[in-house]
Amino acid sequence: xxxxxxxxxxxxxxxxxxxxxxxxxxxxxxxLEKINGEAMVRDAETxxxxxxxxxxxxxxxxxxxxxxxxxxxxxxxxxxxxQTILNILYILSELLTVGKGRRVxxxxxxxxxGILFQILLSNSxxxxxxxxxxxxxxSLLAKVGSKDRKFGVKARLSGALNVTVNLVKQNLQNAKxxxxxxxxxxxxxxxxxxxxxxxxxxxVELMFKIIAPYSKKNTxxxxxxxxxxxxxxxxxxxxxxxxxGGHVPVLLALYLDWHRNDTRHxxxxxxxxxxxxxxxxxxxxxxxxxxxxxxxxxxxxxxSTECLPVRTLDPxxxxxxxxxxxxxxxxxxxxxxxxxxxxxxxxxxxxxGPVAQLYSQPPGVDDVVDESDDNDxxxxxxxxxxxxxxxxxxxxxxxxxxxxxLNKLHPKKNPGRPFEELRVYxxxxxxxxxxxxxxxxxxxxxxxxxxxxxxxxxxSSSQEDVNPTKGQNPQLPPSTSTSTPPAPLTPLQLDTIHLxxxxxxxxxxxxxxxxxxxxxxxxxxxPPQGQTIEQELAHVNWGSDCGSEGPEDxxxxxxxxxxxxxxxxxxxxxxxxxxxxxxxxxxxxxxxEVAYPDYFGHITPTFREPHQERVYGVQRSKIFxxxxxxxxxxxxxxxxxxxxxxxxxxxxxxxxxxxxxxxQFESGxxxxxxxxxxxxxxxxxxxxxxxxxxxxxxxxxxxxxxVGTTYRFNIINxxxxxxxxxYGMQVLMYSVQEAISGRPRWVRTGTDICYYKNHxxxxxxxxxxQKGKSYYTLTFSTSFRHxxxxxxxxxxxxxxxxxxxxxxxxxxxxxxxxxxxRQDVLCETLGGNSCPLLTITAMPESNSNDHIxxxxxxxxxxLSARVHPGETNAxxxxxxxxEFLMGTSPLASSLREAYIFKxxxxxxxxxxxxxxxxxxxxxxxxxxxxxxxxxxxxxTIYHTKSLLQYLAHIQxxxxxxxxxxxxxxxxxxxxYGCSVKETVWQSNISATxxxxxxxxxxxxxxxxxxxxxxxxxxASCSFVVERSKESTARVVVxxxxxxxxxxxxxxxxxxxxxxKYKGLQIGxxxxxxxxxQFCVALLRLKRLTGLRNHQHLLDLESxxxxxxxxxxxxxxxYVMDEDEPSFLEAIDYSAESNDExxxxxxxxxxxxxENPDHLDHLSDSETNHRD
Length: 1171
Hints:
This protein has 1171 residues and is an alpha+beta fold. Among the domains are: 81-327, Leucine-rich Repeat Variant; 618-794, Sandwich (Immunoglobulin-like). Helices cover 37% and strands 11% of the residues. The protein is built from 42 helices and 20 strands. A 7-stranded mixed sheet has the order 14-15-17-16-18-20-19, with helices on both faces. Strands 3-5-6-8-12-11 form a 6-stranded mixed sheet, with helices on one face. Helix 10 (160-170) runs antiparallel to helix 11, helix 11 runs parallel beside helix 14 and helix 17 runs parallel beside helix 20 (314-327). The radius of gyration is 36 Å and the shape is globular.
């Protein structure tokens, strides 16, 4: 018996659903209202006639008659008459078919879904139920379901799930009724709890009864059944049920059958549906095992290969690729241990943290392929009922990493140590007390700084307790000559430094010996054709909004400012001096070789190097070549040709059929090379010393190549989840033959470059406890132009510690009597290398009190760089800064007269020397040690911070602190700073106006840089303070030393996507130019702070207001997501096994996004901070 069914104004309200508003319809609706209620039961025939007439009018008048009306018609239906209800359902169907979904939304909002479920349940109690009524109900429910977020919950609570399932079971041969039932079932299954419930009711097995081999009949039915099955199999419980039922081979057989028979590709969606079901089943380990046992790899590989020529089949190829990559058996890296190949025993091991864990591990347990799977977690019936998971995600998009403690957001200016402890650092600031009386007129009456106090080294050794908590001061030796460094490297003579392992090559190359300096110096002069670019770079236009110049224009500055091109200073490179510097450099492996590029030097190419255009399908083709290794293992050579884990003989001799590799030189990093095919090599990078991860930086030598042959190189243990190699960046190559021919330079090279997740498992020990993680592969191909060449490949332009020492020694020669330059040794590192500290300013004009006073009272600028060894671009920027400061231009002179510069050009010499990517010899990221540096384990940070603490104590805190860095996943150059106001704006904390009081001057320097430096992007800058960065230099100097203008300046490793260099990869010329432009910006900052330009502050205020809507970042995670943003360009670089939506709706999969038009859409508003 049919129960009461109510249609209120929500369901047939002619205002909401645009019922035709002509008089005939209104009259009929009026009649229906009169017979509403109990009368309808008595007069069923009349109700049937009236509803039939309304339906006829709606069907015949069409869309043109559907105009809004404000007449509300409200009535209820209380009838046993099936035809009357059918007429009403037909009317609803007609009304909801048009309107582009808007009417369905209104219907749902007025409770229409619940009414349909009531009718469904009422009718299901009739025996037999009306087939036509059930068909219409399910057709309507299918239309409504996608628009109702609570559809699945309503269906489950009302009992509708079982009604639909029973109907399907009873009508497996009735395609007409089965189709709408399956459509509704598909919507039910999108709710995870419903999916589990339906699985328990046997619906998974039911779907396998419906899907069938190739047939031209009932293809629509089959497509919907596969969609429903795919939705059901997202539940891991159901996926296990399908595996236990033996359905994986069935799906593979069906897919192969449709692949073979659908020769005209008319049923691609059915084939895709089968693949989606396989994809969801293989989200669990049992599914992957079943897939491999059913020979799924070969089936999908062969079918995909046959699909490759047809571009429209790319969605099938991409989904197949995803499944195969997921199911590729996880291997461990081909290494005896993931710890570094080099051993360095620390003086003491930290009590906790990754290094302590590393030292506490028993041998042989450091690289465990985790059998557990982070996608195999148990699934409860109480899963979240939210229909749209995206809505759930929206609740978590706020950045939990933003600092919300207002006490921590206000700089305390707390030096943290007693002044008595810090007094020893006074000797590094002799310029603040020097009276210049003794050394006034040594050179033609012009003062020099050469007779100033000797270099002093605050040493920290195991015998000295310099921990301030114990109340003792660090004891400083009287001079460097009395210091006692660790056991020194055996002094290397020139004849012991092997510039070539092959003597014949050396003779053929005519490499000059020490007396060939004149020949080498010709290599370091820029070629004449480069002069136009050099001259173009030498001009900087301020722009019209930089304020007036003021009286200081007399110093020689005009509207257009001369910025000397630092590339013209390349004759500073001296191979002989470099070799001498190498002799005093201490490395853990005790390197006895010098790399050719570091010996010859580097001249910036005069040609442009644009971003590499990504070839369509390149990633897919590389992945397929990887899969071939599993399918055709006999084709793989698997021949080790270089192995640092065999220290006695890492270069393995062979018959000349393989390339030769080497990385045993300063900053080199290549641990192992394996020849996998005749011209293809897998390369494994070395971990940072005292670490088991941080693989990104590489620098190695290759020889024995064949001219014109294309070689493929795969670096297989990268860790970061994405890379600029996916967005136009190329590796760097240096050819010795080219250098000998007068072109000593690093050039961008490589084709078919991509970066993607591979099948090598990362141990949870190296992944911060995260299980189921994989390494990533950087692959590139290249060919060689010269016979008997020796070539080098690098992640970025190398800049070694010995190069720094050479440049500093040559800078001394640039000093004029007007320049105050002092080089101190700040401290020695764990490895016994000295950390240089530079002081640069202008000498006082005379020894008069006024001039001495002006000299001492100049504001200080404190600069540092290269805390992360792999960020070599930071050293090139620092080189530009140093050479500008030592230049003879009026700008450089004005800058020296304006400030005293304190510069630590390399904070991590040990990491640089030993080829680390991120850490020092302590195995720790030094830029996470600023809060509480250990004098033994982190001496450079400890003493650098002490210098700043000393300045804070004497009320001379720097005007600007800037730490130069490199960024691997963003383009352009930009800054991170610290602001209370902008941090509060990005969080939900409440703050009073007094809490937000701060000087806006922190924005001035980046704003100036954005106006004068073509590579700089203000839009990429951020001034938000995050918890995960509280121990970085930028935040600690801001918070503890009280430096408002405390910055990290990040330079891209790739290139620019805006300004003058848009579309170009960055080179050393642009990086050095950036360093020079930073100096020019400091001079401009001096003008602004001197003029108290109020309009400028108003401009900064408007800038901040304009950036308020900026979404900051995603929370950082333990290992290599560290400080990097989630890179948002949609390239399928990974095959996350829990990625349910790997294919976009347009079904073009990963390769659809490889169109260059889709690249580089990383929103600046979604950046994460990296210090």
